[in-house]
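QA checklist item 7 of 12: single-chain prediction sanity check.
[x] sequence parsed
[x] length recorded as 611
[x] structure emitted
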Amino acid sequence: MTEFPRVSLMQSLAIRILLAFALIISVMMVSMLGGMHLSDSIRGDAEALNKAGSLRMQAYRLALLASEVETEDLPDYIAKFEETLTTPSLLAAVDKNTVHHLPQIYQRVDYQWRQLMLPLLEQTPPQKRAFRLEVPVFVELLDGFVGQLQSESERKLSFIRGLQISTLFVTVLVGFIAILGVNNGLLMPLQELVELAKNIGRGSFQGRVKISARNELGVLAETINQMSRELSDLYENLENKVDEKTAELQRSNRTLALLFNSARSLYKTSADPLPDLAELLDPIEHTLGLGPVSLCLISSLDNPKHEAHSAFSSQNHRPPAYCQLPNCAQCPVFTNRGMIAGGAQVVSFAIRNDRDELGDLRVEVPAGVQMQEWQERLMTALTELISASLSLNQLGQDQARIALMEERAVIARELHDSLAQALSYQKIQLTRLKKQMAADFSKDDMNATLADIQAGLNTAYRQLRELLVTFRIKLDKPGLATAVQSTVQELGRHSGLDIQLDYALDHCPLTPNEEIHCLQIIREALSNVVKHAQATQCKLTLRQDEEGYIHICIDDNGIGINTQTSPTGHYGLNILTERAQSLSGKIHIGTLQPGTRIHAQFLPQYKRSQL
């Protein structure tokens, strides 16, 4: 944490403002106290001036009274003059003004009166002429006393006026200095701080406040500057993190889009997945942002050296420049640890399933570049998708082979069960005919044998047509219902048998294996009805009971069947039993009045998985 310097008392803005106000208050207090003191010293000076002036008038009056003969009021005037000369205000003025020789002047006035003038009036008779001669001298002394007293009063007033002017000047000067200091040290920095705070509020953290003073505002400015720098760094870090997260989200979106498009493209039904795989290499290279991406595929069949059979890259879907097909042993991926021309390194990700190695998905990483974790995860996920696609394609091919072999087995079984047996019987009949001809049998015997051969050939031809009708059934739509309807229509149209269909398995999902075995049971049962039952009507019912069991019922109005043994040369009942057992079910063949019922039942796979 940043430590800021402490503010000393002499640098404190608050202390300086307090000192300025204290100085102003002190000057004003001194001015007021000085004015009050001078006012007190002036108090009584006016009365003293009046009394001193009245002494001049009374001196002239005494001189006038002394010139009159036999005046009786002279003692009263003398007493009044004495009272005026010793007036307290006059004496107080003399005592307060000891600096400018005013007491000495008053002493000379008092001496002039008491020593020179009063004795003249107290003589009998009064020395009036001498008294009148002393009056001008006394008045002159009084004039000097009054003038000195007036000068002293004016000096005090001037001093009061100067004190007030000085106080005003000092107050204005200190106030101006204080205002200037407040403006420069408080208002202007405060405005800068407010502007900086507004900029911070608007999200701009570039401004700074420069306050060199080490006072409270300086500390506050440094604190706000530090906060602005920290907020700027914080916002910059947040923006960088937001940019990074945005880039990661965009990269994740591109990655997810690539995986989704790859899965949608790879999992669609296709006889040859290689073109779809080649089309994926360009988006993979664009998403990774590294170098060309290539795919090397290996066949698991008849490939003891595990050499590749196909290789193509994102560069025009041609094999990579370093590829040495068909000499995989010379590939630089194996001989040079993946280093190729230009310093790039080929990084391989194996494509494999549980049993076999299917190939490699490779990317050329430029020199000095390291694959990131998300790129490795993406390549691993793509290899799993490609592996699943190739495995599904291989599984589809295996299933197609198995279906083809099963279909051939069905054809062979049907031929063996019908046409082969009939032809074998005819072969025996021909051998019999030859023996009859060699033994010179009668013409009637040979004609009977020829008739049997002719009947057998007709039967074989009819069975051949039935087999052709059965094997020509087409499934234009997936599902058991379409296959059953096609079978019923074909057999009914070629045999003339009236077949009624009651299909009630609309909400019963069956596996492809279950659909094939159900269809084979229905075909075998209807074929037996056409060939052996001699029936005119037949009803086919497919339904599911409450416990989930599938029931297949074929009822006919024919001649019936011996449920204990099969007819000679016919293995249909055994075939039906084998089909039912392959569904983990059972079959029951019973008689009707008239006719026969073939009833097969089994529990489908989706119900067995719930048990």
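[x] summary fact logged: The domain at 474-611 is CATH 3.30.565.10 (Heat Shock Protein 90).
[ ] second reviewer sign-off
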